[in-house]
């Protein structure tokens, strides 16, 4: 398992006076439990591309997959910097999260098999993937898998409001 040393800081400028930093373990657990994420990538011309997707938590970070013909795949070929977000979409409760980092393609087949099992366990049998030639395969061509190597992350707690920054 990959362990990232994490520095945790509460930003008092954006936090209630009674707020405390959200522990990284709590944020990591919330990242792992979420069902839907939003991936932000940068188009080769500089525009932002945002799309919802599924992801799984393994080895201390999020993993996602995308087809080779999709816009996000083309964006990653030009710029591997990404943001993955998830949260509650509720103003007064819950935890919203942002993970900023670099998307790195996973090619190791034993690791891909473990990730495929994670996908199916989390999302059900309709998300079954075979592993072939360093990618997922589900009957419509190779689906590369990416690990997000974290640089920074943020947790936005609500009730009380707290803004926590994690540096890796």
Short description:
The chain is α+β, with helices and mostly antiparallel strands and 168 residues long.
Keywords:
168 residues, alpha+beta, Pnp Oxidase, Chain A, nine-stranded antiparallel beta sheet, 3 helices, 12 strands, 20% helix, 42% strand
Structure, explained:
This protein is an alpha+beta fold. It has a single domain (7-167), classed as Electron Transport, Fmn-binding Protein, Chain A (Pnp Oxidase, Chain A, Roll), CATH 2.30.110.10. It has three helices and twelve strands. It has helices at residues 24-33, 71-78, 109-123; strands at residues 7-10, 37-42, 48-53, 56-58, 61-65, 81-86, 94-106, 130-132, 135-137, 142-143, 145-158, 162-167. Strands 1, 2, 3, 4, 5, 6, 7, 11 and 12 form a nine-stranded antiparallel beta sheet that branches. The protein has a three-stranded antiparallel beta sheet with strand order 8-9-10, with helices on one face. A hairpin with a 2-residue loop joins β8 and β9 (135-137). The longest helix is centred in the C-terminal third of the chain and has 15 residues, at 109-123. The radius of gyration is 17 Å and the shape is globular. The two termini are 16 Å apart. The mean pLDDT is 95.
Secondary-structure blueprint:
Layout: E1 7-10, H1 24-33, E2 37-42, E3 48-53, E4 56-58, E5 61-65, H2 71-78, E6 81-86, E7 94-106, H3 109-123, E8 130-132, E9 135-137, E10 142-143, E11 145-158, E12 162-167
Antiparallel strand pairs: 1-12, 2-3, 2-6, 4-5, 5-11, 6-7, 7-11, 8-9, 9-10, 11-12
């Amino acid at each position: 398992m990959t362990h990232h040393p994490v520095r945790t800081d509460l930003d008092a400028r954006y936090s209630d006076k009674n707020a405390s930093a959200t522990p990284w373990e709590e944020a990591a657990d919330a990242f792992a439990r979420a069902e839907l994420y939003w991936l932000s990538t940068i188009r080769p011309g500089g525009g932002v591309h945002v799309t919802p997707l599924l992801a799984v938590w393994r080895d201390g970070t999020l993993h996602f997959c995308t087809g080779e013909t999709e816009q996000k795949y083309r964006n990653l070929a030009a710029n591997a910097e990404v943001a993955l977000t998830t949260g509650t979409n509720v103003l007064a409760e819950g935890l919203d999260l942002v993970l900023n980092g670099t998307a790195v393609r996973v090619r190791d087949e034993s690791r891909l098999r473990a990730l495929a099992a994670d996908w199916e366990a989390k999302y059900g049998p309709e998300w079954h993937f075979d592993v072939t030639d360093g990618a997922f395969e589900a009957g419509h061509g190779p689906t590369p898998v990416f690990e997000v190597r974290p640089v920074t992350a943020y947790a936005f707690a609500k009730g009380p409001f707290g803004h926590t920054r994690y540096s890796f």
